Amino acid sequence: MSSRREREVEAMSLSPFRGFFDFQNEMNRMFDEVFRGLARRSRGEAERRFEWSPAVDVFSRDGDLVIKAELPGVRREDVDITLQDGVLTISGERRASREEERGEGYLVRERLYGSFRRSFQLPEGVDESGIQARFEDGVLEVTVRGAARETQPKRIQIEGPGA
């Protein structure tokens, strides 16, 4: 019986989107998952305020690539989406209220605030005008039209003697 991680690796190897994720972001995400508990115990409150990263799902829907990011407590005007050299970047900031900034009266404080950034390498040939974004109920959904179409390899005829 294979482990969950082995099944995930196998699924990614079969996925037409392998290589889609920005390698550095994936390494940061895995590092955060493994060491988050240790970091919470070893760092002070001030440092923890800036170490959050939104959870993201990436999937295909009817030939389109869809990126959904959970951004609870983030206002739409505090989110920025850019595309440069085929890399789509979602960035922004979750701000604390004045009461939260002072930390007065708190017995437990686990919610994190501060800046975030997630970047994704899009498939080649994506039409920039085919990117749409919608923000509703703390969830950002970015749709890249036509970016999830599976393409078949093109067979190249080899010329030369005996062909």
Automatic annotation (TrEMBL):
<comment type="similarity">
    <text>Belongs to the small heat shock protein (HSP20) family.</text>
</comment>
<dbReference type="InterPro" id="IPR031107">
    <property type="entry name" value="Small_HSP"/>
</dbReference>
<dbReference type="InterPro" id="IPR008978">
    <property type="entry name" value="HSP20-like_chaperone"/>
</dbReference>
<feature type="domain" description="SHSP">
    <location>
        <begin position="47"/>
        <end position="161"/>
    </location>
</feature>
<protein>
    <submittedName>
        <fullName>Heat shock protein Hsp20</fullName>
    </submittedName>
</protein>
<dbReference type="InterPro" id="IPR002068">
    <property type="entry name" value="A-crystallin/Hsp20_dom"/>
</dbReference>
<keyword id="KW-0346">Stress response</keyword>
<dbReference type="Pfam" id="PF00011">
    <property type="entry name" value="HSP20"/>
</dbReference>
